[in-house]
């Protein structure tokens, strides 16, 4: 079976960007590390219960040479030195390891750290990418990218029948296929609004940018509110929130925006639209335990305000920002709410040349972000030994 990605045609930087984008889409809360000044042994970091998972991405596509093995070992040593709280280290390469390489991985690398180490190879990587066809559509030389180029050359205006946009709980890929966005071009004619949206940047006239969003609890400062279970303990799962859980204030929303064409896109502003406001949820508050590493926070959002707006934290540059195919932007938004149960979404205003529009996050038809105050709920305590929340500890 032919590979969906032409790995040998991609540069090392293109491979690392594609793999990092997949990790972020498939592992909620993950963040890419800008390695321009040294990445301290981490290409992507994911906060997990009690610490941190570190992903190290290598573009090695053939049998590992002694020099490449030394390079991987140096990366692991660097992570051990600099990534405090590292519980798991994962090597990601676009090839499956041979038995001899697996023995080297287990016998030579494992003793370098007390953290768990594992690897993701070509088969698992391509299986993961297949769940996100939008990422494949952005990859030069991929079948999806070639299909877009062919359709573009034929002058067709829609790719909806060729490309399926995939979304998972807590992760929405808002693609540039006219989904969940509105916009207009200075050359547009006829009716206005979403139906008349046009942008010269993509073959089907959609917005020339895409975004990935996620919402998660953050250790020591947030958690969830769930329906009251009485005195029954609530089990903790480090991979997913409790059943019927609503995030409490102090959680975090991550928005990663990237251009889809060779043209730069200027992000002019980001605003908040409250869709529903009601009293704080009753039930049980499940505080999220403290973690060894907390990702940096860039923006705050006061959902108690009548007209909430995001405000930059100290040291954060303000809008506008610029994105393109190789330079994305990531926004970390911390919503605070003390008086209600709020459903809301983000409106990202963009311009590209003479075109302009609004990217709606999450996309229309998907569940909005939802955060609640904990004032109407009783609080359970977390029993770390049993990995459950209890009425008392």
Structure description:
The protein has 6 helices and 24 strands. Strands 7, 9, 11, 13, 14, 17, 19, 20, 21 and 22 form a 10-stranded mixed beta sheet that branches. A 6-stranded mixed beta sheet has the order 6-8-12-18-15-16, with no helix packed on it. 18% of the residues lie in helices and 33% in strands. By secondary structure, it is of the alpha+beta class. It has helices at 12-26, 66-82, 99-109, 122-130, 133-137, 143-154, and strands at residues 31-32, 44-48, 51-57, 86-92, 116-120, 172-174, 181-185, 209-216, 223-226, 234-235, 246-248, 252-259, 265-278, 283-287, 299-302, 310-312, 321-323, 329-336, 341-352, 355-361, 369-372, 377-379, 381-383, 388-390. Strand 4 (86-92), helix 3 (99-109) and strand 5 (116-120) form a beta-alpha-beta unit. The model is unreliable at 141-204 and 291-296 (pLDDT under 50). It folds into 3 domains: 7-130, Trna Endonuclease, Chain: A, domain 1 (3-Layer(aba) Sandwich), CATH 3.40.1350; 134-164, no CATH class; 166-390, no CATH class. The longest helix has 17 residues, at 66-82.
